[in-house]
Amino acid sequence: MDDFRVRFGRHVAELRRTRKLTQEQLATRTGVAERTIRRIELGENAPGFDLLPKLAMALRVSVRELFDF
């Protein structure tokens, strides 16, 4: 499971960087703390079901695309 979280986090970070967003900007757009985004990107946390659509919207991808790695 940890490997999945790490791969997911790397993908989110890649999507964020591609869109030229900082972790702070992504946090603001999703309504969570910057620390939460950082921990997701490091694979330390997995986002809850309620955060997935917010992440997708902020990154301009579908929820499905969040898992396309």
From TrEMBL:
Alphabetic keyword roster: DNA-binding
Location of the HTH cro/C1-type domain: 12-66
Pfam family, any one: HTH_3
Record flagged with keyword DNA-binding: yes
Organism encoding this protein: Microbulbifer taiwanensis
Protein name, entry field: Helix-turn-helix domain-containing protein
